[in-house]
Amino acid sequence: MGAINREWHAAHRMPTKPTPEPRGEWHAEHQDECACRVPSEKETALIAAWRQARPSR
Known about the structure:
With about 55 residues, this protein is mainly alpha-helical. It has one domain. The chain is about 60% helix and about 0% strand. Helix 2 crosses helix 3.
């Protein structure tokens, strides 16, 4: 586990009752911007599915 990026967390709150689309986006961005914890297997699968559905940036 790494340090929490408090500024990122404060600016990027998880939406209330998110569907898989915003959850995948939030967790993908979180993984890229903050090293506070390792994503669970479920979150990792959600991130992979979200990234696969998006064209490369």
